[in-house]
Design goal:
Number of domains: 1
Order of helices and strands: EEEEHHEHEHEHHEHHEH
Helix content: 25-40%
Number of strands: 9
Shape: globular
Distance between the termini: 30 Å
CATH topology: Rossmann fold
Strand content: 15-25%
Largest sheet: 9 strands, mixed
Number of helices: 9
Radius of gyration: 17 Å
CATH class: Alpha Beta
């Protein structure tokens, strides 16, 4: 693992790193915030998954998360949103290809070789982190925004033995029922919609059995979000949660949009949500 840069931030240390991922067949980048409490022993780990067009840098520079993370003693990991490079397939649109990995394992050409972000998040990245950082790997949470909120919820539902807690800001809750999801899932997985349900939080919730014993999900959604009606559909996730007894809080916030200003306004609540569940 090669250190790209490192600096102090909010009484902790933030570093940018790169490593070669076998799963994605290219170099991948991520950032890590290590709180001061890590000097005394392993600390809980929160993985943040960013949305369309973002890199490992957007959350680090825009979310304003690390003051609260330092207070709570949380390590925060922010990976890139997709594989990148000259040999990695791409698309001219912002919502497909590089910067738009959708946290799934692609099976269709030309994406299947590189676009395996699901396996990267649950296998390659943790292996690098465990070799290099003093995290408490028995206490992990996952959260994200928009496409990353979709990723956080689906990865949590399929890896409850790894991630105790989950939260999301303006997540894509039902990608099988929105234009972003229809486009990405068709491209990455092919036309058979039966295979799409494995990467749809609403569908996974419906088919995942009794959810009453799982940790509560926290979602924040801005009511001035121009993607709310067409792309995000939090009400569908709420309905699926109600059907299986899954505890969920969806805070609908007047006046907030889809931007990092909204994330920065709510990130403290989300970190405290994870800290409470990971104590």
């Amino acid at each position: 693992m090669e250190t790209i840069s490192q600096q102090r931030a909010h009484d902790g240390t933030i570093g940018y790193y790169s490593h070669t991922s076998d799963t994605c067949a290219c170099d991948m980048r991520f950032s890590v915030f290590v709180p001061p409490q890590a000097a005394d022993g392993p600390v809980p780990v929160i993985t943040w998954l960013s949305g369309l067009t973002c890199t490992e840098d957007n959350f680090t520079t825009k979310a304003g998360a690390y003051g609260v993370a330092a207070e709570l003693g949380l390590m925060v990991v922010a990976p890139d949103t997709s594989p990148r490079g000259e040999n990695v397939p791409d698309d001219d649109a912002y919502d497909l290809g590089q910067g738009a990995g959708f946290y799934l394992d692609a099976t269709a050409a030309p994406w299947a070789t590189h676009f395996n972000m699901y396996s990267y998040i649950i296998r390659d990245l943790p292996a690098v982190l465990k070799d290099n950082f003093a995290g408490d790997w028995a206490r992990q949470g996952i959260m994200g925004h928009s496409m990353g909120g979709h990723g956080a919820l689906t990865i949590w539902l399929k890896n409850l033995d790894t991630f105790t807690s989950a939260s999301a800001v303006a997540p894509i809750c039902a990608p099988m029922q929105c234009p972003w999801g229809d486009k990405a899932l068709t491209a990455y997985l092919g036309a058979d919609r039966a295979t799409w349900a494995n990467y749809d939080a609403t569908e996974l919730m419906k088919t995942g059995g009794d959810g009453s014993a799982r940790a509560e999900i926290l979602v924040d959604q801005g009511l001035a979000d121009n993607f709310l009606d067409d792309q995000l559909h939090p009400h569908l996730l709420e309905e699926a949660c109600a059907a299986v007894g899954q505890k969920i809080t969806v805070n609908r916030r007047e006046g907030y949009d889809h931007s990092y200003f909204f994330i920065a306004s709510m990130i403290g609540d989300h970190l405290r949500h994870h800290a409470r569940l990971l104590r």
